[in-house]
Amino acid sequence: LTAMGEPSTDPTMSAADSTAQQDSLFSMTDVFLISLITGLFTYWFFFRKKKEEVPELPKMQTVAAPVRDSSFIEKMKKTGRNIVVFYGSQTGTAEEFANRLAKDAHRYGLRGMAADPEEYDLSDLSRLSEIDKSLAVFCMATYGEGDPTDNAQDFYDWLQEADADLSGLRFAVFGLGNKTYEHFNAMGKYVDKRLEELGAQRIFELGLGDDDGNLEEDFITWREQFWPAVCEHFGVEATGEESSIRQYELVVHTDVNMNKVYTGEMGRLKSYENQKPPFDAKNPFLAQVTENRKLNEGGERHLMHLELDISNSKIRYESGDHVAVYPANDSSLVNQIGEILGTDLDTVMSLNNLDEESNKKHPFPCPTSYRTALTYYLDITNPPRTNVLYELAQYASDAGEQERLRKMASSAAEGKALYLSWVVEARRNILAILQDMPSLRPPIDHLCELLPRLQARYYSIASSSKVHPNSIHICAVTVEYETKTGRLNKGVATNWLKSKVPAQQGSSSLVPMYVRKSQFRLPFKPSTPVIMIGPGTGIAPFIGFIQERAWLKQQGKEVGETVLYYGCRHEHEDYLYREELARFQKEGVLTQLNVAFSRDQAEKVYVQHLLKKNKENVWKLLNEGMAHIYVCGDARNMARDVQNTFYEIVSEFGNMSQPQAVDYVKKLMTKGRYSLDVWS
């Protein structure tokens, strides 16, 4: 361009030269423009063709598939069902109750199905009235601080946003909760209230099960009044006595490729040999135990600190999250069950659902051996529920034992009292029942069908990912106690974790695990003060919190006051993480360390007593510093006592009445300034 432009500024250039150059210039410009337009048109033509062709097929595929797969209405119509029992279940109990209710339906000439709300489109509830004598039942557990269970989260979100007309829907709700928690049965109450708001018709009152009392009895009491209400509503009658109907059929594999047999995997076959992220409840990561040390210096208990290596797993966690581990049952218990029932535990078998339309093809991964099922898949240590006793009764050859089992499974007051004393309070598991009833010898396949699934155990993570990105730490106490029958019962997970040998080859150092996100979070601003209250193993998440605050301080961030209230029995016995806490205090990260040794003096001293002692400082941090409060540990006594102490402090220094103080603390909870991570 510069070469072309220069002559035009020369006054000595002739007119003829100028005209010739212009002609040449125009012809070149014309060619350039025509080429450009042609090129653009060609590009646009082909680009437009692609845009038209590509989206059509995928759109049709993605729209069609979920509608066909997720309609429980179509499934009910196809299989002749009129009762659907949805369950929100975290530990399997709500699912178990849902299955029992679905099974009950046949006694009244009705047909039921249990359903996981995660697998279906719940907006179809508005169409349930298309089915004659239809009813939706919801067995909803509450998890954590009033939260829905993982599998009910989508249903909960839909209920909150829905403006559906459910006027044709008939429903009933049974909630599973625990009275020691602040938000007792919040999920059951919400579902019951919200369905009514959307126009649905409640045909029986909300049931509230309390796991702190006797959840099984609460369910039976509700259930025995629920079915008469259903009969009255639909004008049907019971067709006869409750009968034992097998849900699964046994298939024994005599000639099977062992590469096709499950050996403890939770989902995909061979997933433990060929690990693929993402890792979750159905696909746990096999973490190597790199450290397993005893924390306490004395006493009868065994408190331990474990470290799990999550390198190369792509697992991410934050301080306050929970780690879930899948334990294994004690091999001696498994062997004893096999011996009593005269079974070859290494027999490879499958239990196949007799209902071919069911989404649940097997009660646990199949094919597998009885040994694997009893070790990794079935709960053999908790007292069995009444429905298990009822089904097993037919296999007792002694009339007295058979009658006793049936009585405990009945809804009669005498039966309930017997079940409570002989099974629940005596903590008799299935092995103890088989030992104490010599004539009771059920087929092992039916026993495997009846026993509930062995569940993952959750632990508050005792580390910060900022400091330990490739490691998750656990703080736990082994559970071991003598029952009223003189038997020694051991906690499944804690004793299994205790046996893990660091950095050894093979399964002796591997732990199947995944991370569950939590709302237990440090304040967004590091400068916000924190008051942490965690006696015993409740200190776990606070070790992670303090590690993180130390890391933030090292990064040059302004870190607010970090106050810990910790408690244990004896200073020289079970003072957990003593050295670490002393170091954090010396470094100035832990600004206050208040420790209550409950049994080192005549009068017991607990964390709430230290809070009262420091009440002025606590109120100042809370009122002026806008501190966040965190409570971790026992829900039944400690968390409640601590909360009552905060009511007193707020009432005294905030010049409030008791109801006003309670309201103040509840508002702190709503704003996320008072968080709980508790268990009972």
TrEMBL record:
Which CDD domains does the annotation name?
A: CYPOR (cd06204)
Question: What are the GO MF terms of this UniProt record?
Answer: flavin adenine dinucleotide binding; FMN binding; NADPH-hemoprotein reductase activity
Q: Which residues form the FAD-binding FR-type domain?
A: 282-523
Q: Which Gene3D superfamilies match?
A: 3.40.50.360, NADPH-cytochrome p450 Reductase, Chain A, domain 3, Nucleotide-binding domain of ferredoxin-NADP reductase (FNR) module, Translation factors
InterPro entries linked to this entry: CysJ-like_FAD-binding, FAD-bd_FR_type, Flavdoxin-like, Flavodoxin/NO_synth, Flavoprot_Pyr_Nucl_cyt_Rdtase, Flavoprotein-like_sf, FNR_nucleotide-bd, NADPH_Cyt_P450_Rdtase_alpha
The record, for SUPFAM superfamilies, names: Ferredoxin reductase-like, C-terminal NADP-linked domain (SSF52343), Flavoproteins (SSF52218), Riboflavin synthase domain-like (SSF63380)
* Organism domain of life: Eukaryota
This protein's cofactor list reads:
FMN; FAD
Transmembrane region positions? 25-46
The entry's cellular-component GO terms read: cytosol
Q: Which GO terms describe its biological process?
A: response to hormone
Q: What class of enzyme is it?
A: oxidoreductase
EC number from the UniProt entry: 1.6.2.4
Instruction: Specify the Flavodoxin-like domain's residue ranges.
Output: 83-227
Keyword Membrane in annotation: yes
Q: What Pfam family is a match for this entry?
A: FAD_binding_1
Keywords per UniProt:
Endoplasmic reticulum, FAD, Flavoprotein, FMN, Membrane, NADP, Oxidoreductase, Transmembrane, Transmembrane helix
Q: What is this protein called?
A: NADPH--hemoprotein reductase
From which source organism is this entry?
Answer: Motacilla alba (White wagtail)
The organism's lineage?
A: Eukaryota, Metazoa, Chordata, Craniata, Vertebrata
